[in-house]
C-alpha cells in the first residue's frame, strides 16, 4: 500500500514541479524522509498523508487508492485541475480555510485526529518492531539449526 502512495506522491510532485526538499519542508520532514515515502520504504503517518493530499488538492481516498501512473498525462492534468477548480470555487463562495468557520473546524478536527492517532502510531510502531524481532529470531534459530546440523555432520565424518 505504501509503495502505491509513494508512487503517487512522486508523480504528483513531478506534475506540480515540487522538489522532495520543498515537500519535506511543507511536511516538516527531511528530503530523505520524502524519498523514503516515495520508495515505500517507510510507513507514512496519517497526518502526513492528510497534509500531502491537502497540498496537492486531492482527497485522501484519491491519494491512497488511485494508480496515478496508469492515468494518461492529460487525465492526470484534468484530475489536478478539477480539484484546483473545486478549491477556487470554494474560494468564490467565501470559504477560505484560513479565516472561516470551516477552516477552524478543519484545524480543530485535524488536531483531534493527530492527538488520537499519536498513541495508535506508537503502538503500531511497537507491534511492527516486535514482528520484525520475531522474524529475526526465527531466522537466527534457522541458522543455528543449520550450524548444528553442519557440526554434527562434520563430527560424524571425523
From TrEMBL:
Transmembrane segments: none annotated. Signal peptide: none annotated. The keyword DNA-binding applies. PROSITE patterns: HTH_CROC1. Keywords: DNA-binding. It holds the Pfam family HTH_3. InterPro entries: Cro/C1-type_HTH, Lambda_DNA-bd_dom_sf. CDD domains: HTH_XRE. Residues 9-63 form the HTH cro/C1-type domain. GO terms for molecular function: DNA binding. This is Helix-turn-helix transcriptional regulator. It comes from Aquimarina algicola.
Amino acid at each position: 500500500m505504501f509503495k502505491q502512495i509513494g508512487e503517487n506522491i512522486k508523480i504528483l510532485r513531478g506534475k506540480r514541479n515540487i522538489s522532495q526538499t520543498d515537500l519535506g519542508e511543507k511536511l516538516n520532514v527531511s528530503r530523505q524522509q520524502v524519498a523514503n515515502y516515495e520508495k515505500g520504504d517507510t510507513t507514512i503517518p496519517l497526518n502526513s498523508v492528510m497534509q500531502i493530499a491537502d497540498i496537492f488538492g486531492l482527497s485522501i481516498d484519491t491519494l491512497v487508492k488511485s494508480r496515478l501512473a496508469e492515468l494518461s498525462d492529460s487525465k492526470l492534468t484534468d484530475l489536478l485541475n478539477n480539484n484546483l477548480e473545486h478549491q477556487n470555487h470554494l474560494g468564490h463562495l467565501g470559504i477560505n480555510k484560513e479565516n472561516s468557520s470551516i477552516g477552524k473546524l478543519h484545524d480543530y478536527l485535524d488536531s483531534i485526529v493527530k492527538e488520537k492517532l499519536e498513541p495508535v502510531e506508537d503502538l503500531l510502531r511497537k507491534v511492527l518492531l516486535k514482528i520484525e524481532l520475531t522474524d529475526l529470531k526465527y531466522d537466527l534459530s534457522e541458522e543455528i539449526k543449520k550450524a548444528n546440523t553442519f557440526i554434527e555432520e562434520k563430527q560424524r565424518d571425523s
